[in-house]
Amino acid sequence: MSRQPTPALVPPSRRTVLGSTAGAALVGLVTAGSAHATGTPTAPDTRHPSRPDDGAHPSDRHIAFREWSGRELRVGRFCEKRDYVDPHDPSATVRSYEVATWVSPVVRPGFGLTELVSSWNADTPGRSWIEVTVRGRSGGTSTKEYVLGRWCRYDPEQGGGIHRTSVNGQGDTVATVYTDTLATRTGHVLDEWQLVVRLMRPVGTHETPRLRSVGAMASALPDTERVPRSPQGRARGRVLDVPTFSQETHIGHFPEWDNGGEAWCSPTSTSMVLAYWGAGPRRDETAWVTQARPDERDPQVDFAARNVFDYTYDGAGNWPFNAAYAATRPRMRGFVTRLRSLTEAEDFIAAGIPLVTSVSFEKGELDGAGYGTNGHLMVVVGFTREGDVVCNDPASHLVRDNREVRVVYDREQFENVWVPHSGGIVYVIHPERHRLPHAPRHERNW
């Protein structure tokens, strides 16, 4: 969790830019998560069409997820070459790579999309890495390619190829990219989209990346500040036994990665879900953590923070990087999508799958939290019989104690700090063989 003692000097986070309706009122409050994206300008409202604050119905929330895996991911030959200078390598060395490319089919979601978030599960042995881009059509005209991420499993100090990174400064008249989210400009939508993934291996080596899945969530959401309380679903009274980790216990740890645990809500939440599935890092993998901090009780959180870190965003809250990290664990899968309501979230809990959710709220807006935030991640682990939400909140009560993490939040309050603010963003992390609940037939969002 990061604090903002000098409000005038703190730039808005991309979560505020992307639609936190409470964002402007949050300056000076306690913030949780990576709320200091460097150089993020204030942008025009990217949601279309503009609607009054009427408590839009879930059916007004256009969300469509598409993914490819297995034989659908056949990649061409390494027939191109590319030079790349890692912007976070102090030596500024030019390195040459052989490049192979995978291009998705063109996707027409059936609505004009205003935001898109991609996901990928990949292996990047040695010094190899991947670049994920998207292109589309707006008003009958093709767009350029927008970079959604340059990614590898490890940073160079761990033997990886590059410092994983988002790319700033891509905006044009049609769209821009806020760290991990393509967002169209006011007055523009994309009628279709297409992903391009480039696999990079050092010239003269056979260190070849392997794609296991690639996908994206496209959406067009109503401009509403509130949603009605959703009807209870299939998870009434069910609470999953997800371990509790507090980000507060990591304050001051490894400040080179997003100022230490104070801002580690996302990797802490991801770590809780991986621990639930028994898929966290082994003791030998986290040895570098315990060697530096022998008193560390939850080294998997520090390990995750390093391995989701976005060196341009300068934070550990990049949504696809967290999902991609989770999928580097044996037999695990991770992706990012949006849900329309807590009724849909209940389908996942009923299937035994906890969800990492992205929320924002003013202090006092979510009873029992005890803080305010312009961007925070927490895990939905279940529901009471009355339909309220049981969460593992890594910043709960701002107390450095894992026992304080489990909390119950009012259903309607939680829904309104989640759905209108992040658009209902979730990380879905589960073993590859664990079946997902049935997705909605119309506009499948998983």
Structural commentary:
The chain is an alpha+beta fold. It folds into two domains: 1-46 and 228-446, Cathepsin B, Chain A (Alpha-Beta Complex), CATH 3.90.70.10; 62-220, Jelly Rolls (Sandwich), CATH 2.60.120. Helices cover 14% and strands 27% of the residues. It has helices at residues 14-17, 265-276, 287-292, 299-308, 319-326, 342-350, 411-422; strands at residues 62-69, 80-85, 94-103, 115-123, 129-138, 141-142, 146-151, 175-178, 181-184, 192-202, 210-220, 332-338, 355-361, 373-383, 389-392, 406-409, 425-431. The strands form three sheets. Strands 2, 3, 5, 6, 7 and 10 form a six-stranded antiparallel β-sheet that branches. A hairpin with an 8-residue loop joins strand 2 (80-85) and strand 3 (94-103). The longest helix has 12 residues, at 265-276. The radius of gyration is 20 Å and the shape is globular. The model is unreliable at 1-15 and 19-55 (pLDDT under 50). Pfam families: Peptidase_C39_2.
Cα(first) to Cα(last) distance is: 30 Å
Determine the mean pLDDT. Answer: 89
Number of structural units classed as domains: 2
Which structural class matches the secondary elements? alpha+beta
DSSP E strands, number:
17
Any idea what the shape is?
A: globular
Gyration radius, in Å = 20 Å
CATH H-level homologous superfamily name of the largest domain: Cysteine proteinases
Q: Quick summary of this structure?
A:
With 446 residues, this protein is an alpha+beta fold. It is 14% helix and 27% strand. The chain has helices spanning 14-17, 265-276, 287-292, 299-308, 319-326, 342-350, 411-422, and strands at residues 62-69, 80-85, 94-103, 115-123, 129-138, 141-142, 146-151, 175-178, 181-184, 192-202, 210-220, 332-338, 355-361, 373-383, 389-392, 406-409, 425-431.
